[in-house]
Amino acid sequence: MLGAIAGDIIGSAYERYPIKTKKFDLFSKYSQFTDDTVMTLAVAKSAIDGTKYLDNIVDFGIRYADVGYGGSFRKWLKSWNYKPYNSWGNGSAMRVSAIGFLFDTEDKVLVEAKKSAKITHNHPEGIKGVEATALAILMARKGNSKNQIRERISKKFDYDLERTVEEIRPNYQFQVSCQESVPESIICFLDANSYEETIRNAISLGGDADTMACIAGGVAEAYYGEIPQEIRDEIYKQLPKEFLEILLKYRDRVKNR
């Protein structure tokens, strides 16, 4: 899960200022956690404590209000009825990483991923994006090869994962839909040789940088293991105490699973 959070923070400086290169500073004065981190930790808290996903998503969303939520989610938070709004946006996929790490079977991961998404993202593409991301994380941490992950995700979700980052980058533009950003985020992992290269791939596409790096970063962490110490150190500096406490509980749960 820290890999997803790191992707969000690194990508935050490039969301409004897209770049088409892998050569950039990982951190700057503009690096900060966004809604991706807040919602990732809200879902993680529910997965750890067994509390309802809706309760923590609403609670965290209200208390951390000014972190870059999309317009539809902001309206949803203010509506007080909290009914799903048929979203196909990539917000479902960016917040799911803890589920791929905390649950151990494909069936359970897919059930929990769908539960975490359908609170808001009950459109079929919103569900497909969250399930594909969570399953890729599960397969990566279970030791599956990249070819196995590519084949399984492609077949189950009808995603074209045969493209490369170099092929996608020239014409890719900012996209917030699951169907136009989740496959590309997974490709950024498949087409990399390390966690850091995964993040650089995702940001270099010039799209929804923080969210795509968040999605790709979660899968990359599951595959490569611990993210580099220098990145972890910087991320810990960025997060409030409440978030660090959730990360500690999460780490204990993963170790004692």
Jot down its keywords:
globular, 15 helices, ADP-ribosylglycohydrolase fold, 0% strand, mainly alpha, 257 residues, single chain
Provide the fold topology.
Layout: H1 2-12, H2 35-49, H3 53-63, H4 71-79, H5 91-94, H6 97-102, H7 106-118, H8 124-141, H9 146-157, H10 165-168, H11 182-190, H12 195-204, H13 209-224, H14 229-238, H15 241-255
Question: How is this structure best described in words?
Answer:
63% of the residues lie in helices and 0% in strands. It has helices spanning 2-12, 35-49, 53-63, 71-79, 91-94, 97-102, 106-118, 124-141, 146-157, 165-168, 182-190, 195-204, 209-224, 229-238, 241-255. The radius of gyration is 16 Å and the shape is globular. It is mostly helical and 257 residues long. Helix 11 (182-190) packs across helix 12 (195-204). The chain starts with a helix and ends with a helix. It has one domain: Orthogonal Bundle (ADP-ribosylglycohydrolase fold).
